[in-house]
Amino acid sequence: MDFITGVKQRGEVTIDQILSGSYTGSTVKMRGAIHAIRDMGEIAFVVLRKAEGLVQCVYEEGKVNIPRKDLKEESSVEISGTVVMEARAPQGFEIRLTNIVLLSEPFEPLPIAISKWKLKTSLETKLNLRPIVLRNVRERAKFRIQEGIARGFRDFLHQNGFTEIHTPKIGARSAEGGSNIFKLDYFHKKAVLAQSPQFYKQTMVGIYDRVFEVGPVFRAEKHNTVRHLNEYTSLDLEMGYIDSFEEIMEMETGFLQYTMELLKKEYKKELEILRVALPKVERIPAVRFEEAKRLVAEKYNRTIRNPYDLEPEEEKLIGRYFQEEYQSDFVFVTHYPSRKRPFYAMDDPADPAVTLSFDLLYRGLEVTTGGQRIHRYDELQNKIAHRGMSTEGMEHYLMIFRCGMPPHGGLGIGLERLTMCLVEEENVRETTLFPRDLKRLEP
């Protein structure tokens, strides 16, 4: 009888292990895909693509067990060879090949040259060929950075007493209201895809005090813009026993500070590949909604057309204003009008026309919405009644308030939008692995 006792080392080395310096002159083994082959006459450079990056290997005819003509780009291989330090190589070393085992070969030529540094093709083509395009070095770097953002969110919140939760994405009712919901048939019952985990994360505050989730949300918005998706990843947190909604903004600022340091330390290669300059987040200005509109109207000679919401052009100008005046890429816009916020948003006791809520703008684009929630049952009922809403389907949500809830608040961050701003792309689809929008359900 055989027993599985855990992970066994296969005798392969990693890039980091070689960079430690202890493998110079040694024979090593690696597995990966052939990213590119560059013939130089008597020798050829075979570039191996691994999860950690590219490794330059040197093929010399007669010194390797298989002929050069048998090697194809995108073949999966196991290589053996001697490590030699070489400053001009991608990692500062190269492997002089002695043995290659072909694990698999491509059936046909690639539809696009993914080994090029930058893919000069349309976004539509890049999305149609997504499974292959993602093998490109720059494309991979974007999503490594995106991993770093999500990792920073998790790590920082764990360190601050948060519990990770996982909530349903199929429900009987929308948490946000409105018509922008995807409806589906659920065993002959009406169901919807979750617009947010709002009701559930509030529920869990009554259990764990501080909770967070990283998961998909769905919006049936008929937008076809560079900033909207119909499915995106939301970084959500909710925290109880708060004294003010400013604590939510402080927590997000702490997350951004932690994450920028993490990216700087552990994602340096990806930042260099994309030439990303990380934003300064030591302090983030906060401005009231009405004041923000007035400031940009005065400075940029713009008429205020909508007193209850920010237009995309206004958001850009607010971002520009705080970059010019305070050298800040981020700005919190607070105290949004009550009529433009969900029913559970707490109104400001000093001015019930506005809420204790905020958006975080990054270079003029909204990447976060958050604020304090109503936690008293009678106040929540009064607001629901004032808006003429029905409580049908909300029985379980209202149950938590009837049974007592602490003061609490939270936020939701659009992961793809935040990544888009960080790597300075112009379309959120560029920083979405497999985008879902009005036209796209594949790949």
Give an overview of the whole structure.
This protein has 443 residues and is an alpha+beta fold. The chain is 29% helix and 27% strand. It has twelve helices and 18 strands. It has helices spanning 15-19, 123-128, 130-133, 137-159, 198-208, 246-266, 268-274, 289-299, 312-326, 377-386, 395-402, 415-422, and strands spanning 27-39, 43-50, 53-60, 76-85, 93-104, 163-164, 170-171, 183-186, 189-193, 210-218, 231-240, 286-288, 330-334, 347-348, 351-355, 357-362, 365-372, 408-414. An eight-stranded mixed beta sheet has the order 6-10-11-18-17-16-13-12, sandwiched between helices. A hairpin with a 7-residue loop joins strand 4 and strand 5 (93-104). Helix 4 (137-159) crosses helix 6 and helix 8 (289-299) crosses helix 9 (312-326). The protein is elongated. The protein starts with 14 loop residues before the first helix and ends in a 21-residue tail after the last helix. The model has no long low-confidence stretch (mean pLDDT 94).
Q: Tally of extended strands?
A: 18
The pLDDT mean sits at: 94
What integer value in Å does the Rg equal? 26 Å
Task: Name the strands of the widest sheet in spatial order.
Answer: 6-10-11-18-17-16-13-12
* C-alpha geometry: elongated
Specify the oligomeric state: single chain
Helix percentage: 25-40%
Unreliable parts:
none
Described by strand count, sense and barrel closure, the largest sheet is: 8 strands, mixed
Cα distance, first to last residue?
43 Å
Helix count from the secondary structure assignment? 12
Layout of helices and strands:
Layout: H1 15-19, E1 27-39, E2 43-50, E3 53-60, E4 76-85, E5 93-104, H2 123-128, H3 130-133, H4 137-159, E6 163-164, E7 170-171, E8 183-186, E9 189-193, H5 198-208, E10 210-218, E11 231-240, H6 246-266, H7 268-274, E12 286-288, H8 289-299, H9 312-326, E13 330-334, E14 347-348, E15 351-355, E16 357-362, E17 365-372, H10 377-386, H11 395-402, E18 408-414, H12 415-422
Parallel strand pairs: 3-5, 6-10, 12-13
Antiparallel strand pairs: 1-2, 1-4, 2-3, 4-5, 7-9, 8-9, 10-11, 11-18, 13-16, 14-15, 16-17, 17-18
Helix pairs in contact: 4-6, 4-7, 8-9
